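Q: Convert this sequence to structure tokens.
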Amino acid sequence: MTDAPVSKLSKALLWDYFILIARIWLAITLIKYGYSKLIDGQFGVTDATMQLKLKDVGLFNLSWYLAGHEPFKSFVGISQIISGGFLIYNRTVILGAFMSIPIWLNILVFDMTFMGLYTPFTIRIPFYIILTILILWHHKQKVIPAIMSLINGTTTRFRYPWWAYLLLPIFGAILELVGAIPIVIINLLSRYL
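A:
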């Protein structure tokens, strides 16, 4: 960050200001929609829709009915608020941008699936994704080394013989069975208590 005077307009200054506008606009959008989910402004259906036969309920209303159930609705809303909040602050803008990408993609696929391809949201969300990528590109001097440190040199701590890799599916299945122990215990307790 430079403390250069704003009196001289330059490409760098205008680009930086554009990125700031994009950050704040995306943050407001995420926070607004996230908050709306927490106060029942999004998801769910009207009582009139609930009185319809299932075959008469459109795909969009059915999807909003299902998405309106907890804890899904609150999880989505809180995730949007957190990522939007992160976009506001310089220290957390990169984290906020990375967090918002799966949120935007989820909204895009959800809307394409249940609303169709040519709706305002299915057109607007790709624009938000582009803005988010531009934010990351603006901070590429920090983003690229971070990504490279995640993908370069990542390996197991030890080298294993080839036959150890053949045993992985067996040990994976055993691990899955171990993960099922709490389910078995809960089912037994609920049956006898």
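The radius of gyration is 23 Å.
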